[in-house]
Each structure stands twice: as C-alpha cells, then as structure tokens.
Amino acid sequence: MRQTRKAVLVLEDGTVFEGKSFGYEESVAGEVVFNTAMTGYPESLTDPSYEGQILVTTYPILGNYGVPPRREKNDVSEYYESEHIHCKAIVAQDYSWDHSHWQADRSLADWLKEEKIPGIYGVDTRALTKHLREHGSMLGKILVDGASDVPYYDPNAENLVAKVSCRNVEVHGEGQKTVVLVDCGVKHNIIRCLTRRGVKVIRVPWDYDFTSIPYDGLFISNGPGNPDMVVKTVENIKKAIAIGRPICGICMGNQLLSKAAGAGTYKLRYGHRSHNQPVRRAGTDKCYITSQNHGFAVDDTTLPQDWEPLFINMNDGTNEGIRHKTKPFFSAQFHPEASSGPKDTEFLFDEFINML
Ligand SMILES: NC(=O)CC[C@H](N)C(=O)O
Asked: Could you tell me which PANTHER family the record lists for this protein (predicted)?
C-alpha cells in the first residue's frame, strides 16, 4: 500500500469531500470549478485562465499518461500552454500511480510536487460536480492532513489578468503582416496558431497602449477571472475599434471586445469547461463541437445595434461569440485553438488572417 496523507476538499457551504493527497502537501483555497473533458490535464493545468481555481476533473482517472517534457519551440512551450501550472489544485476520482505515454518524462504527481500544487484523489467527483451544478461554482479549500488551515480566497475579486500577463513586449514569428496580441494570460497555442499562418506577432502586456504600434490586426487573448477587472484593456480596445483595423478575440477576448462595444457580461452559474460544447453559427444551421473554459458570459441582450451574436451555445442558449455588422471585428467565447480539445473551429484563425 502506498503511503498517502489524507486530504479534504471543504466547500464554502460546509460540504466536505474526503480524499487522499497525491501532489504537494500544503493547504490551498480558490474557486472550485469542474471540467468534464476526458483528456488534457497538462494543457488545463498550464492554461492561465485557471489561475486561482481548484480544478475538478470528472473523467474518473487522472495521471495515466504522465506529463510531457518541458521544452520550448519557437519561443513558446512545445506541449504546455504557459510556463507553469496556474490552477491552485486539482481534484480527481482516482489517480493512476502508473503512467505510460511515448511523450511522458515524469508522473503528474512528480510535476505537481515540483510546482508546489496540491492534488487530491479518492473524491466522488461526480457527486461533487452535481453539487456544483445545483448550487453553482463556489469557493473551497483543500486541507491536507498535518498542513495548516487557510482562509477562503475569491480569485474573481482581484485583477488576475495583471498577474498572468507578460511584463514586456515580445515578438513571435515573422511575416509581412503584423498582429498585435494583447496578452491577458495567453495560451501558447494561440501564438502557435498565429505564427503558423505566417504573421509577425507582437505580444504586449494587458494594459499596454498598442495603438502606437503600426499593426494590421489586433488579437485579444483568453485570460483568467472577472472581465470587469480588466478596465485598461477595454479602454485600449475602444481605441482599436475607432481605428477600424481587423480585431479578433478569444474567450476573455470575446468578453473584453463586447465590453468595448458597450455590452455587459455576467457570471454563469457553473460555467462551461469541457471538450464537447456545441455552438451554432448565427444565421446558419452549422454546429461545431468546441473546447471551452469560461465562467462568465456576454449578455447578448446588451449588444449595441451595430453588433450581433456570432455563435450561440446549443446547450443553454448563451452567447459564444460576437461580430460587428459591417466592420472586420469578431470574437469567440470558445477556444478555436483547442489545446486541449477538438480542432474543428481552428478555421477562425484563417478567417481573421484573411481579413488583414
Ligand atoms: N478562458 C478564458 O479566457 C476565460 C475568461 C473568463 N476568465 C471566464 O471565466 O469567463
């Protein structure tokens, strides 16, 4: 028998789930959210949009394919979505102590310990997910036996984008056309998807006034937390709307473009985090299966007259993207860059590049 310390997940409503620790042995607090994808834990753990969150995975086994090596290719990580793990902790039904995959160079447990991130298994994640679905995402903490208690922590009360954005202007790739990428906590596959299409990407911090840079198109990345906190980016996007050159946004980018257009956002009860979210393209019968990770949504009813919904979620009817009726501005709430998840909507990068 493997020696593991007991650990519990305590929700802010007092519900307790008992389990065992397999990661770093420390107590942590954050917002508890669930993801129903079957694979992709290396990508999810390093996705900056999970900053401050305790990630519950409903697929019953975690760790069975280990972790790929940390390697860089063309200035971005080859297999990860950022430089380090962003989740506060990860919760699983079962942890596989044996892993096997041709790319794996260590176990998930080793990686979590290395990055000081707790992991807990032996939790009935389906019961936990049902609870979160009924009562909504809530704050929670993982208390590892022997480690001291911690207070609850609400990540949505602070500007997480400022925490995860790059500090300096960086250039990726080369090409005739220049895309300014506002880094709100960008997933590296967005950079890969852009540079692969032969454009020069100038990646700027979230609050950088990029209007001084001559650019052909503006890209607004994904990012963690509450879009209401990201006021400075919205101010700069308003200037870009007035400039009129093509704009595209993903996830937080959809929310910030909507805000710059004059629309509002709100918090969903438990968010969309999975690989199988169906979205319909407005005005068509075309439906796409998409990868998603968001807790907030754009309120369609607040979109001004010259804007319209571009995609609609087929499960709950919420907004999944917007576009300007006459100008080259559009965005998606889901992840066309996938990583992880289906790549069916990667063509949206082509639509953007063709506008430049
Ligand atoms: N992946 C993202 O960009 C998420 C956007 C925002 N933090 C949300 O949860 O809705």
From this structure: CARBAMOYL-PHOSPHATE SYNTHASE SMALL CHAIN (PTHR43418:SF7), MULTIFUNCTIONAL TRYPTOPHAN BIOSYNTHESIS PROTEIN-RELATED (PTHR43418)
Whose C-alpha lies nearest to ligand 1, atom 3? Answer: 222
Nearest atom in ligand 1 to the alpha carbon of residue 268 is 10
On whether ipTM exceeds 0.95, the answer is yes
The pLDDT of residue 325 is 98
Cite the annotated binding site by residue number.
Answer: 49, 223, 225, 252, 255, 293, 295-296
Can you say which residues are annotated as belonging to the binding site for L-glutamine? Answer: 49, 223, 225, 252, 255, 293, 295-296
CB-ligand 1 contact for 293 (6 Å cutoff):
yes
Alpha-carbon gap, residue 25 to 112, rounded angstroms: 10
Distance 63 CA to ligand 1 centre (A): 25
Query: Over 70: is that where the pLDDT of 30 sits?
Result: yes
Mean pLDDT computed over 132-139: 95
Report the separation in Å between the CA atom of 352 and the middle of ligand 1, taken as the mean of its atom positions: 21
Q: Are 93 and 61 in contact (CB under 8 A)?
A: yes
Instruction: Return d(Cα 191, Cα 212) in angstroms, integer.
Output: 21
> CA of 225: how far to CAs of 4, 49, 56, 89, 97, in Å?
33, 7, 17, 16, 33
User: Which residues touch 313 (CB under 8 Å, ≥6 apart)?
Assistant: 272, 277, 278, 279, 319, 320, 333
| Active site amino acids | 251, 335, 337
CA of 105 relative to ligand 1 center, distance in Å? 30
pTM of the model: 0.98
User: Rounded mean pLDDT of 37-53?
Assistant: 98
Residue 1 binned pLDDT confidence (cut-offs 50, 70, 90): low
What DSSP character marks residue 50? G
Compute, in degrees rounded to 10, the torsion defined by CA atoms 133, 136, 138, 143: -20
Average pLDDT score, the chain: 97
Q: Please report the sign of the dihedral spanned by the C-alpha atoms of residue 239, residue 242, residue 244, residue 248.
A: positive
